[in-house]
Amino acid sequence: MNPFAAERITPLNRFPINPDADFVLYWMIAFRRAKWNFSLQRAVDWACELGKPLLIFEALSCDYPWASERLHSFILEGMKNNGSDFESAPVSYFPFVEKTRGQGKGLIRELAARSCVVITDDYPCFFLPQMIRAIGKTVPVAMEAIDSNGLLPLPVADRVFSTAYSFRRYLQHQLPVFLSRFPKENPLRGVTLPKLQEFPAEIAKKWPRADTIINNLPDSLRRLPVDHKVAPVETRGGAQSAGKKLSDFLDANLHRYHVDCNHPDKNATSRLSPYLHFGHLSVHEVFSKLCKVERWSIEDLSDRASGKREGWWGMSPGAEAFLDQLVTWRELGFNMCSKRDDYDRFESLPDWAVATLGDHQSDARPHLYSPQQFESAKTHDPLWNAAQRQLLRQGYIHNYLRMLWGKKILEWTGSPREALNIMIDLNNKYALDGRGPNSYTGIFWVVGRYDRPFGPKREIFGSLRYMSSESTLKKLKTAEYMRCFHQD
Ligand SMILES: Cc1cc2nc3c(=O)[nH]c(=O)nc-3n(C[C@H](O)[C@H](O)[C@H](O)COP(=O)(O)OP(=O)(O)OC[C@H]3O[C@@H](n4cnc5c(N)ncnc54)[C@H](O)[C@@H]3O)c2cc1C
After folding, report:
1. Whose CA is nearest to atom 47 of ligand 1?
2. pTM over 0.90
3. Residue 3 has pLDDT above 80, yes or no
4. Fold of the 239-339 domain
5. Domain limits of the chain?
6. Which of 300, 334, 399, 409 counts the highest number of beta carbons within 10 A?
């Protein structure tokens, strides 16, 4: 078997492999793509070793939290893309979409009962960790969860990092080994596997393939029991769109990322977060393609692991700044979610933040808004409203404004816990990239996670970092942004 990295494999039970069963099953739940995917690679390896067909099962339920036309349509576009990517490959692809709540119940167990081994994705957030742990206990064969989340395998770090600086320093020590253990770009290239002769008829009858739904977007969405008020956005899902976004970014924006990324009018960031979130794009692919553009090789790494933001990679300033977001900040949140079940709770905040928020709990708020007023962008602040309108319309808020958006929700609600609930709900309901580790990194950063105390103390914020719309408007280029999102 391929020695890609034993630390990326987590057994979910102690059952044996069943070499006499019908196929190897890959249950794709987070890394929804055909390339640069350790889970798929592991499943292919098993199928080759056992000489069995490989069945790839990608499912979409309709009762996950915040299920909506917006999220469904993005995922379904990805499934369509996967269908065509797997068409000419020596595998069988089985897309399933629930038409009614609970329709998919029992399906994974039926498939597992016919499997030699079940491979799935090890994603540390949302309902997925609990779901796979529970399924692992009930299937009758070996089941493995594979980590394809980041450049650093999640189990490698033995602690939770409380600052980006300490995590960056740790990465600078640990990453070099893993930079040469990437997934194969195309794990199916050159592979010969027996084809599944016949898909089990009783399964196909009870749980029919989702081709009609997938091929009739967006009309088919209307008949699914999801939130129809959160409409699809212009951004299209799927690995193909992700690849186009990535090459556009590398061609046009990478070189100016460090200068322009904070200015909403400059559109300098990658807009890759929805694709990374739904697994339509792998961070390994992004890194590999960026290295090509930079003509970078591992010898260019600095041997000084100082934790500094610039200089360690030995790349251009734009690439170094981008990698600090893509690797340091992104994987910092994955580290937290993989190690602490309370990553989405107020109690997980650092002591100093809990204390200072407690000291200012009863401070008078200059404005108080209800969740509905926030949701409908009806505050007194035009910049905040513009950011919220971007979220409603595009499923996204510009990075810098997302921080301001959160800080103002904290300032204009009755308590930090209420502010957290509102941020989590709005972010996860409307943002394509919501419901993941980065969501909780960003939202909890607003209330002190990964940050430090600042002086002098202020009303409501205490020693938390403060941000204001006035200074943001002065500091950043926002005229075009304000024009674009100034009204509903
Ligand atoms: C209140 C709040 C909520 C947020 N919610 C989310 C969310 O739900 N999902 C999400 O992906 N990001 C979230 N972020 C982080 C950040 O705003 C987005 O990742 C970024 O704006 C995505 O745009 P981009 O792809 O153009 O980023 P780029 O600037 O091009 O960065 C490249 C990638 O790096 C990662 N990244 C960038 N900034 C951060 C960051 N601060 N923390 C962690 N990873 C980062 C993302 O995966 C991003 O796609 C949130 C930040 C705040 C302050």
Report:
1. 273
2. yes
3. no
4. 1.25.40
5. 1-148, 239-339, 346-484
6. 409
